[in-house]
Amino acid sequence: MDPSLTSQALAELNELLWTLPSSLDPQEIVAVLLERCTRLFQAPLAAMWVRDQQGIGLAGVYGFSEKKAELLWQKLDLRTATRARQLDGQELHALGGFGKRRLSSLITVPLQSARGLAGWLVFARLEPAPFTDLERSFLEILANRVAGSLDNARVYQETQARSRELELLNEIAALLVSTTRLDELLTRLVSGIVDTLELSSCYLYLLEGRGPEMRLRASHHRDPTNAESLRSFLAERPLRIDQGRSAEIYRHGRPILVPNIAEEQVMPEDLRQRVGPGSVLIVPLKVRGEFLGAIYLVRTGRAPALTEELLPLVTHLANQVSVAIANARLYEGLENEVAKRAADVQQDYEELARRFSAGRDFFELVSADLQADLQALDAGLANGADDPRLADARAAAASLNAHLGQLFSAQATGRIHDGRVGSEDR
Questions:
Q1: pLDDT, average across residues 246-262
Q2: Domain tally for the chain?
Q3: Do the Cβ atoms of 135 and 6 come closer than 8 Å?
Q4: 48 lies in the same domain as 188
Q5: What is the average pLDDT score of the chain?
Q6: Which of 306, 336, 321, 337 shows the shortest CA–CA distance to 206?
Q7: Which residue segment(s) compose the domain that 42 sits in?
């Protein structure tokens, strides 16, 4: 098989050189590049390593497994290399085979960008045909173009990430003034953090009174399949501020980044098994020097580990959230006080109503007696009794009855009116 580039292959490579920079998705760049190049260069085995925040890592493979690619990376030892290199003969033989297949020719090409070394491209052939100088030149040109495309994609993603972070800050600022309900506030908060920062989950713990335990108050999971079971599990497992990393957060009040959950006692063993391998960022919640709790930001699986670049953002968020929690608690306290005062006022009203009812009964009884006396006096006067004392007694009884009526009417309208307590009793 003649591996030299044909005119058709050259035309496709030229097209590839012009189309790659238009993509802003690193995964798409890697996939297109490996698929097209393995065919055009007749190299059925290919791998690509790209630099990220954690260093240079495997970005894609073609024709063999990731495990084999990682083994190849270790044997090639490209960490300090800076130039393209072709391996064959004895050097290639030292790399070993890939199952029943043995490599006959392999070339490594660095991805050089304006920011420095961005990664490596590796192509290998099984047929005994070394890469030609023309192929090597095209691969170097292509690698440089790919490095620039990856830089553009990375800048685009960073810009998008900053934009999402600003949106999150605006949403939280609006949220803080739109609700004073603590549970609603915390639930919407952790949901926004997970979506914006592309986390696996987020847990918010608050200190219970002055005791040593923090209990889960809100959580959100990107994967809903086991979200409810994990939430129930966490609700029954408080975290103690006198043990593990929680104690460190409580004492020093500074964020803690744990790149590998499995290697540190950042959470109980049974909880680590449920969460899985990954990284966690723990941020304290404080207001005016008082420790309120902590937010646990978790990213698991194949997603990039959390880094210190997030610290300014999440610290700012934690400060806002801490103030919001303190305000919500104050509002809840005021609501409880208002409810207590309303209950006291209702009790006073009921007591006044009871007294009013008793006074009315007494007035009706006295008024009935006076009416009876008036009738008796009227009967005596009607029978011709000319004793002036009878007339005086009748006038006095009538005056007393009228006075009692006025007094009762004044108390009724002045102290209790339309079912409300009067001004003297408020």
A1: 81
A2: 3
A3: no
A4: no
A5: 75
A6: 321
A7: 7-157
Dist CA 172 CA 178 (whole Å) = 10
pTM, to two decimals: 0.55
Contact (CB, 8 A) for 291 and 284: yes
141 & 29 share domain: yes
In a domain, 278, yes or no: yes
Helix (H, G, I), strand (E, B) or coil at 92: helix
Last residue of a domain, one of 261, 289, 306: 306
**CA 173 to centroid of chain Cα atoms:** 14
Q: What is the pLDDT of residues 96-150, one digit of tens each?
A: 655 556 778 888 888 888 778 888 888 888 877 888 888 888 888 888 888 888 8
d(CA 423, CA 121): 87
| Alpha-helical runs (H) found in 111-208 | 133-178, 182-197
Check if the beta carbon of residue 279 is closer than 8 Å to that of residue 257: yes
195 and 144 fall within a common domain? no
Q: Is residue 318 part of a domain?
A: no
Residues 345 and 419 in one domain: yes
**pLDDT value at residue 401:** 66
pLDDT-derived band of residue 325, with 50, 70 and 90 as boundaries? confident
